[in-house]
Every structure is written in structure tokens, then in C-alpha cells.
């Protein structure tokens, strides 16, 4: 039996269990709005009696290792996610086998979007903008083309307020409200659109302090299924300097990564790595139902972020050069950007402690236009897809003092 046939058989059996449990709940629940319920004893017993749950651990590990190695890219990589949803033993072994993006260069589970990108190479993504609905969608490319069908990663919705603008970021493209179970963070701007703050809904490292805000959701003690409230943990501050050169001058951008130490870009440096989502309403989201834990766990090597004592990582846009023949500012995007735009940028680490304020050569994040409402976004270690997406969203916002 091929691995693909094995996965298909496993899906059919697991699907029959799920359909049986849904019918049981529908008969018990009667009318009214649908509710998310925990797995009952009958469903749990059926899952435990499944032949897939009774495989010897050595054989199971060998099977899962081969599946993980053979299904390297999306959409076939969804088979790896399906394996993690079979039962507890499959989930545990799959999570041990699948490496973080820093080492593998692959995005597998939703938590991968909160983990730093690869050290060697970049993850090539693109953003689609919908002007009518003021929404933005992040995809990872499936081919070497600038844009293809892509695998959906994140969505954001622009919300205007009297004194600021919020971009709410979600794992679900159909529900981007802050009350959603799949809300994971936001970007907030000041009135002029020159300063932005990226907030993570979950603690980015052990000991992170939540920002005092009215928008923090409080959970009542009398709730049947209490959730960890989505907080506002500042992870980055973005600022755009006044453009003294007028319309011909490029924007000047500065990002202070509150959750990443400056040493992360050095050889052997480490950035905080979230390993699980907290116990929350994310349990009702099918693709991440197996990320349930009593608390958010952080990589033990960086559990106590040293940015309280150590300097924070600072990113600045790479200085473009003026092209005399083309009469425009130019940056080498290595074929990933095709349309000139004031929004285009490349971010590099800046050594502010050095005597000459020397810029680094390695591009950590680049963003550029390739169509009317289509943009590429390539990122690498030590920032994550979530942080990169939020930084790129800041470029879309209107900047009264910079244009």
C-alpha cells in the first residue's frame, strides 16, 4: 500500500468517526444555534479502538517520517497535518518529527506562522489586496512563479477609527473580527500613519507583559468553556521618518523588534520560538484543533527573553541608489519585484552600537509590487510570517507626513 493510499484510508476512517459523532450531537442537541463541544466518551472510545491508534510506536514513527519527507510542499503537505489529527499518539510523534521553519524552511502547522523563518534561504510569499473590502490575504507560493494559486496563510482587515487605524490579523479569511476564535494579533497606527505597533494576541516569550488596553478580552468565571483572553503583547514598533526629499525620495523605515534580541542575527543567536497556541477557542478551528495545551509553551532555550537587559533588534530599510539613466531610486530585488512603487522596501539589521552605524547586507524582509493589487513578501530568520505580514501592512497605510 502506498503512503497516499494509507493516508486516504486513514482519512476515510477518521471521517466516519467524525460523522458519527456529529449525528450523535445533533440528535442530543435538538434545535438552536450550533455549538462547539468537547469530544465525548463514545467518540474517544471509537478513536482509541481505531486500528491506526494501535500501530506499534516504532512502525508508526517510520511511517510518519516517510510521509513527512515525501510530502515536502503544499498542497500535498496537508497529509502531514492530517496525520497529526488522527489521535494522541499520532499527534505526539508528528509534532516531534516536523521541524520548525528555522531548520526545515517549511510551514506546516498554523503555529509555524508565529515561529522565525529559515536561517538558510527565504520563504517566498505574496499578498493579495482587495480594495473594496479593505482586506489583505497572505499566501505562500507553490511554485517559482511570482504569484500562483498559493497556500493561504493569514488574512487582515482594515478598521478605521477616529484617532488610529487597526489591521486585525486572523488565521481565517472569512472571519477577521477581534472576537473571532482565530484572531492572532493586530497592527495599530497613529493618526498620521507614521508610527505603528504590532500586537501579538499570545505571549511571544515567557514573562511578556500585556499592554493595557480596553480591547483586551476578559473571560467571565461562569463560562462553560473558558478561553485564554487574547491580549495585546507589543512585539514590534514601526516608524516612518519625514521624507525631506519630497516626491522623489523613498520612504525611510525603522522597526524595533521588542520580542527579538539584537544578538539573534549573529551566528549562534537565538530568537524566541512559540511552540503551541494557548488553550482557547482555536480548538474549534479544524486545521489547528490538535494545538491544545494548558498554557503557551515557549522554546526553553529562549524562555526568558533577554531583551529586558539586552538590546532589541533594529531593522531599517536598505538605502536605495539613484539610477541616472532610469531617473529613479533602485534596489536589487533579484527579480521578485516588477513594478516601481513607494511601498517597495528591503529591511536589514542595523548595528546602531557600531561607530559607523553600518548596515548589514543580509535582507531579512523584502516587500514589493508586482501587480495592481499583488505584492511579494519574502522573509527569513529571525522574524516570523506574522511579524512580516504586519510590517508589510504598515506600508499600505496612508502616510500624510511622508508622501
TrEMBL record:
It comes from the Eukaryota. InterPro entries: F-box-like_dom_sf (IPR036047), Tubby-like_C (IPR025659), Tubby_C (IPR000007), Tubby_C_CS (IPR018066). Belongs to the TUB family. It comes from Oryza glumipatula. CDD domains: F-box_AtTLP-like (cd22153). Residues 113-398 form the Tubby C-terminal domain. This is Tubby C-terminal domain-containing protein. The lineage of its organism: Eukaryota, Viridiplantae, Streptophyta, Embryophyta, Tracheophyta.
